[in-house]
Design brief:
The protein has 649 residues and is an alpha/beta fold. It folds into three domains: 60 residues, no CATH class; 200 residues, 3-Layer(aba) Sandwich (Rossmann fold), CATH 3.40.50; 256 residues, P-loop containing nucleotide triphosphate hydrolases (Rossmann fold). The strands form three sheets. The chain has an eight-stranded mixed beta sheet, sandwiched between helices. Helix 5 packs across helix 6 and helix 12 crosses helix 18. The protein binds adenosine-5'-triphosphate. The site of adenosine-5'-triphosphate has 20 residues, from helix 5. Its main location: nucleus. InterPro entries: DEAD/DEAH_box_helicase_dom, Helicase_ATP-bd, Helicase_C-like, P-loop_NTPase, RNA_helicase_DEAD_Q_motif, SPB4-like_CTE. GO terms for molecular function: ATP binding; hydrolase activity; RNA binding; RNA helicase activity.
Length: 649
């Protein structure tokens, strides 16, 4: 019998256990004694694994229970008495007792031509950029400006107006402000690092700040005496101070860390700043940086001195960039801009790029893990150096799926392999050093690479050539969807995005995202995903479900053998549920935590225990009313989100 076609059931037909009532003492002790009396102590775990396995030829075929076992619910997969206490746990089948999924036509969609691509009709030199910068761009195969660059570059080169720049994700906003600012500094006679700090760029996350800094750093090849620096927190403040003391002309910073330096680094002189860029304005506000930004802007204004450089504007020019329009961005505009000109492109910025192919797979909760694995396998099939990003709702879920896919129970590992590809994890609870090196490894990987992450990677990050985005957990807001899928299909390139939804209420989310997708949405059946991924060559039409089941059960078995991994799974499950409870009230008709089948969802985390037991740690807790539970969860999630993006040192 082939090993991978086996399913394990109970080992020796268990002799019927005598139930012994245990009373007195602590609940844990009572439970231990109860289990021991039933012969279900810890040491039995191994015996239960992998012995007396039964071939599953047909997913719906009912297999006779071992002697001494009860036949469970008729439609369910044959169950095994597990390690449960009062409520026994079951090894349920992946493919039975799943909720129904609405039938939808599965048509191919016509992909439109790119909406954020460089335009053939215009050149950078035509916009007023000098030869050195042009040559530098050509060296990077950047030949024609995008629409937003066409509009912003001449305005910044010529003008004295503040700008409110709104454009689609991946439309080249960074170069739109970086190129003219750099050129203006190039025009300062004898500029060097001691001439002063002239441009400040504020970004919401350390990753984004690092990325913008590297754009300026690479531009310094056009004039090696212009020095860019960054202060982003998470790194040693001492070395940042030393950098500021030596002098920089362009500073890229996260707001929290910059305020810290304003207060404690005497050498930091903001008086010559003539350009302030607020990148990802909506995110800066969402992360609560309003107060820090106000302080920074006030410090700049209150120390400003007149300059004798004719190439620089007489007064400070502020540029606010955002891919989405929100009331919070408008508020940031009021705070930072003066008589600003709105610069936007004709295409609807609140839509995804036209060329993006959006797929949706509706998956019963039990099948989420195996369908994720199948999706990843299919996406990298026939590829050699593809890049895929998978978004999760919380760090706990990233940690679990990383260990589950790589089978590495040591949580400090951030890289591994899956289906011959490199796989990485990234979230805000990792140290800054780890985050930076993980992103670099992911970007530089010579083979196919997959990044499992939270929304820490959803904003502004320009990872090169991302082919696919998978939203394993739905976004918490529509803007998040735009930003997540916006990591692919950048600057006119093609890209695919896959959204996972649960059957039932979550299917309503389709109606919400449909207007954002000019090319339409392609519906995919999870069965076809699994079939493509798991069908053995030459065995068409039969083996895929068995293979998928085996793949999943291997995870369950592994968790039983690895207590640390099981702990990570339990934590991942609990964090996932908590994060789910914080979906916007306005989207409750799609994401209602009360309607989730917790048992089925726990199975997708490889867990056989009842979720109630997991969530409470087995202890009875005082009943909490619904409202205070929601508030508590929302608070926890907000805290987790801020931690996720913690830009402070
Ligand atoms: N004119 C161009 N031609 C070709 N590639 C370009 C051009 N301009 C920018 N790019 C590339 O396109 C990618 C996206 O640019 P950028 O990160 O500035 O987009 P963005 O508008 O800031 O997106 P987001 O809003 O998602 O942060 C980068 O890799 C950049 O090098």
């Amino acid at each position: 019998m082939e090993d991978d076609l086996l399913l394990n059931f109970a080992s020796e037909p268990p002799a019927k256990k005598q139930k012994v009532k245990v009373t007195g003492g602590k609940w844990k002790d009572r439970r231990k004694s109860q289990l021991a009396s039933e012969g279900r102590g810890r040491n039995e775990k191994k015996e239960k694994l992998g012995v007396n396995q039964t071939k599953l030829g047909d997913r719906t075929k009912d297999v006779a229970p071992a002697e001494g076992e009860e036949r469970p619910h008729k439609t369910a997969f044959p169950e095994r008495r597990g390690e449960g206490g009062k409520n026994n746990t079951y090894v349920s089948s992946l493919f039975t007792a799943n909720p129904e999924i609405q039938d939808r036509p599965i048509a191919e969609i016509d992909v439109l031509s790119p909406s954020n691509a460089p335009l053939d009709t215009s050149s950078f030199s035509g916009l007023g950029l000098n030869d050195r910068i042009n040559a530098h761009l050509l060296g990077q195969r950047i030949e024609n400006p995008t629409k937003i660059q066409q509009q912003v570059i001449p305005r910044l080169l010529a003008g004295n107006n503040d700008l409110f720049v709104q454009a689609q994700t991946g439309s080249g906003k960074t170069l739109a402000f970086a190129l003219p600012i750099f050129q203006k500094l190039m025009e300062i006679p004898n500029i060097d690092r001691t001439s002063g700090l002239f441009a400040l760029i504020l970004a919401p996350t350390r990753e984004l700040a690092t990325q913008i800094y590297s754009v300026f750093e690479s531009l310094s090849r056009c004039h090696h005496k212009i020095v860019a620096g960054n202060v982003i927190g998470g790194e040693k403040k001492k070395s940042e101070k030393a950098r500021l003391r030596k002098g920089v002309n362009i500073l890229v910073a996260t707001p929290g860390r910059l305020v810290d330096h304003i207060e404690h680094t005497q050498k930091l002189d903001l008086s010559k700043i003539r350009y302030v860029v607020l990148d990802e304005g909506d995110r800066l506000m969402e992360l609560g940086f309003e107060e820090s930004i106000t302080k920074i802007l006030h410090s700049i204004s209150s120390t400003a001195v007149p300059l004798q450089y004719p190439s620089l504007p007489a007064k400070r020019i502020s540029i606010l960039c955002s891919a989405t329009i929100k009331s919070t961005v408008k508020k940031l505009g009021e705070l930072s801009l003066e008589k600003a000109e709105l610069v936007t492109t004709s295409e609807q910025i609140t839509k995804v790029p036209d060329q993006l192919v959006q797929q949706v797979v509706v998956i019963p909760p039990k099948l989420r893990f195996v369908t994720l694995a199948g999706t990843l396998k299919n996406l990298i099939k026939d590829q050699t150096a593809s890049r895929t990003i998978v978004f999760f709702s919380c760090s706990g879920s990233v940690d679990f799926h990383f260990i589950a896919l790589t089978r590495k129970a040591a949580s400090e590992d951030t890289s591994g392999t899956l289906f011959g590809s490199s796989i990485f994890k990234l979230h805000g609870s990792l140290s800054q050093q780890t985050r930076t090196s993980t992103l670099k490894q992911f970007a530089d990987s010579p083979n196919n690479a997959i990044l499992l992450c939270t929304d820490v990677a959803s904003r502004g990050l320009d990872l090169p050539h991302i082919n696919n985005v998978v939203e394993f957990d739905p976004p918490f807001a529509l803007d998040d969807h735009l930003h997540r899928v916006g990591r692919t299909a950048r600057a006119g390139s093609l890209g695919k995005s896959v959204l996972f939804l649960l059957p039932g209420d979550e299917e309503n989310y389709l109606k919400i995202i449909e207007p954002l997708h000019p090319s339409g949405i392609q519906f995919k059946k999870y069965e076809s995903v699994l079939k493509e991924a798991f069908e053995k060559p030459g065995e068409k039409g039969g083996s895929w479900d068995t293979q998928a089941t085996t793949f999943h059960l291997d995870l369950e078995r592994w968790l039983l053998e690895e207590p640390r991994a099981k702990e990570i799974a339990a934590n991942g499950f609990i964090s996932h549920i908590k994060a789910y409870a914080t979906h916007l009230a306005s989207e409750r008709e799609c994401f209602n935590v009360k309607k989730i089948h917790l048992g089925h969802l726990a199975k997708s985390f490889g867990l056989r225990e009842t979720p109630k037991k997991l969530a409470s740690g087995g202890e009875r807790k005082k009943k909490e009313d619904g409202k205070s539970k929601m508030l508590r969860m929302a608070k926890m999630h907000l805290q987790a989100q801020t931690d996720e993006f913690n830009t402070f040192g």
